[in-house]
Structures are given as C-alpha cells and as structure tokens.
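Translate sequence into structure tokens.
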Amino acid sequence: MSDAVLSAETPTLVLTPSDRAPARARRFLVEQFEELGVGDDFAGRLVVTELVTNSYKHVGFGHIVVRVFPDEAKTVVYVEVWDEGDALPVVRPEDHGATSGRGLPLIIELVQAWGVRPLYETGKVVWVRCAL
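Result follows.
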C-alpha cells in the first residue's frame, strides 16, 4: 500500500465492539465515499460491514478502527479495519450448507486486492483496495 495517501487528517472511526458497530461503519464509509466523489458505494458498504462484523464476533474486545482513504492518484480507495485480535482471517472452502464463513470469499470477489498486516503491539489490520 505504498501509494496510499495517509495524513493526520485521514478520517478515522473508532468503534466499541457491539451489534451497532457494522451500521456505524457503513454510515462512515458512505460519508467518506461521498467526500471522495465515489458514486457507487455498494461494494464498500458490503466490505466494511463484513470486516467490522468479523472483528465484533471473532475478537469481541478492544476497539475496532475503520479508515477509508484514496491512493495518491485517486484511482483506488483503501478500506482498513483494525482490531486487537491476533487471529488472522481464514478463507474457508465453499460450503453451500454453511451458515457462516461466506463473507470473506464474497469480499475477495468484490475488491481488487486484500490483505492482513499485524500491528506492532497486538492486533491486525485487514485492508481492501477498491477501484474508484
């Protein structure tokens, strides 16, 4: 993500893990996409909802941090979700009978790229890159 534009002004949303966190993250993403001039926010809303839900359900403690920012050329936008859990996301094989575990494969189909990077103390950042 070396071409990303981060500054002290990069909007950041800090959430407490709860069932309200995904909806707050969606509203934040919609606001940021509007500010960036992104007309179609469908994929972004789906992505941030899934990532924040995963943090809430699988970590359940600490804070969840959401950031949305463009690359330098403003051709892509990054969505990051930080949490304090050390467990990495797992892409499960397709299982039509499963009642969970379908979100990450769906996200992968909607974005240009995705990844995970550990934080220095504890936790991780799951990021995705979406075309503008």
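Note: The two ends are 16 Å apart (CA to CA).
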